């Protein structure tokens, strides 16, 4: 059987996973506060839908598409988990939503976001030197420190 996803749920049939107040490790007393905080953070950090038209002057949708296609190839080459790629694209879009960037730095932004995402998602994340290599050494040791200037609000 198939239910309509928009149909109201039957509250009586929902299992409350936070009803075990006896186990302090489950943090059941804090569950609603944690959920509200995470939901608020999710909506606050969401990338805008029109950042390429409103904020970016030197980057257009086709450039972003080329960057994402290249990052897909990089993720396949290094056998990164899919979540690393998804998180990379999210970081790129969130950065582009709040910061203007010139096209010469777009690939560096992509590499930086993939490096950060890999540190969160991968068991063995690629090293910075490997990311320099995959860009045909377009970005050298000095420029890779630009990565650390990215605002921590994107993560």
Concise structural overview:
This protein has helices spanning 31-44, 51-54, 61-77, 82-98, 106-121, 128-134, 141-144.
Provide a descriptive summary of the structure in words.
The protein has 2 domains: 16-44; 51-154, Cyclin A, domain 1. Helices cover 51% and strands 0% of the residues. It is mostly helical. The longest helix has 17 residues, at 61-77. It has helices spanning 31-44, 51-54, 61-77, 82-98, 106-121, 128-134, 141-144. InterPro entries: Cyclin, Cyclin-like_dom, Cyclin-like_sf, Cyclin_N, Cyclins_cyclin-box. It holds the Pfam family Cyclin_N. It comes from Aegilops tauschii subsp. strangulata.
Key terms for this structure?
155 residues, single chain, mainly alpha, 51% helix, globular, Cyclin A, domain 1
Write the layout of secondary structure elements.
Layout: H1 31-44, H2 51-54, H3 61-77, H4 82-98, H5 106-121, H6 128-134, H7 141-144
Helix pairs in contact: 3-4, 3-5, 4-5
Distance between the termini: 40 Å
How much of the sequence is in beta strands? under 5%
Taken together, the total number of domains comes to: 2
Distinct helical segment count: 7
> Which structural class best describes the helix and strand composition?
mainly alpha
Helix content: 40-55%
Give the number of DSSP strands.
0
Task: Please write the string of helix (H) and strand (E) elements.
Answer: HHHHHHH
Gyration radius from CA atoms, angstroms: 20 Å
Q: What's the rounded overall pLDDT mean?
A: 83
Poorly predicted residue ranges: none
Instruction: Examine the secondary-structure arrangement and name the CATH architecture of the largest domain.
Output: Orthogonal Bundle
CATH topology title of the largest domain: Cyclin A, domain 1
């Amino acid at each position: 059987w198939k239910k309509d996803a928009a149909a109201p749920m039957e509250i009586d049939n929902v299992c409350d996973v936070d009803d075990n107040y006896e186990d302090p490790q489950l943090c059941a007393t804090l569950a609603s506060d944690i959920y509200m905080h995470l939901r608020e953070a999710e909506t606050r950090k969401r990338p805008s839908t029109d950042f390429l038209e409103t904020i970016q002057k030197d980057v257009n949708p086709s450039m972003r598409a080329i960057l994402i296609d290249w990052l897909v190839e990089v993720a396949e080459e290094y056998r990164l988990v899919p979540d690393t790629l998804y998180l990379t694209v999210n970081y790129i879009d969130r950065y582009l939503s709040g910061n203007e960037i010139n096209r010469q730095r777009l690939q560096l932004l992509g590499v930086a976001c993939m490096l950060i995402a890999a540190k969160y998602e991968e068991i063995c994340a690629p090293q910075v030197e490997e990311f320099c290599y995959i860009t045909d050494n377009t970005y050298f040791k000095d420029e890779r420190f630009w990565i650390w200037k990215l605002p921590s609000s994107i993560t």
